[in-house]
Amino acid sequence: MKIQHAFRNYEVKKQMVAASRIQHRFRTWKLRREFLNMRRHAIKIQAAFRAFQARRQYVKIVWSVGVLEKAILRWRLKRKGFRGLPSDPLVPDQTTQQSDTEEDFFQVSRRQAEERVEQSVVRVQAMFRSKKAQEEYRRMKLAHVEAEVTLSI
Questions:
Q1: How far lies 11's CA from each of 3, 6, 19, 82, in Å?
Q2: Which domain holds residue 53?
Q3: Do 3 and 76 belong together in one domain?
Q4: What is the DSSP secondary structure assignment for residue 84, as one 8-state letter?
Q5: 52, 114 in Cβ contact below 8 A?
Q6: How far is CA 140 from CA 128, 133, 136, in A?
């Protein structure tokens, strides 16, 4: 009887170990599945937010380029319009105050337009330079990682 009792105890222990292994594997599989699901959802949210930011940045850049194109077009048309005009002698002071006011208004408007154009130019340049800077940083980081790998070997 002792041998039979020992054998049954051995079989029960073996089954308990197998059951605990199965439970452990199932629980870890379930946790991993939940983790991967959460990670997938987080990646989707991040991608949506990054796409939103990229669209907003794209609209800014398109607006800036539009301002630049409009300024260049105005400049070209203005130059084209002045080519055929004969040079008239200046008329004496008839309405100097009115013309001074109009001139001040045009100068202020021109200054504001130039500021908008300058802002647009800076934005387009910053976009171009940031892309170059990112590529340069990526190259430097890659070189640094390669140097670390060669030093650690």
A1: 12, 9, 12, 105
A2: 1-80
A3: yes
A4: T
A5: no
A6: 19, 10, 6
CA–CA distance, 61 with 126 (Å, rounded to integer): 10
Q: Are residues 110 and 147 in the same domain?
A: yes
- Amino acid type, 86: P
| pTM as predicted | 0.42
Task: For residues 63 and 69, give the distance between their C-alpha atoms in angstroms, rounded to a whole number.
Answer: 10
Q: For 12-43, what is each residue's pLDDT tens digit?
A: 999 999 999 999 999 999 999 999 999 999 99
Give pLDDT tens digits for 60-106: 888 888 887 887 777 777 766 655 555 555 555 555 555 666 677 67
Number of domains, the chain: 2
Where does residue 11 fall: left (phi above 0), alpha (psi -120 to 50 degrees), or beta otherwise?
Answer: alpha
Instruction: Enter the tokens of residue 120.
Output: 């647009």
Q: Both ends of the chain: CA-CA distance in Å? A: 63
Is residue 91 domain-resident? no
Answer whether residue 110 is part of any domain: yes
**96 domain residue, yes or no:** no
Task: Say whether both 8 and 75 belong to one domain.
Answer: yes
Same structural domain, 14 and 69: yes
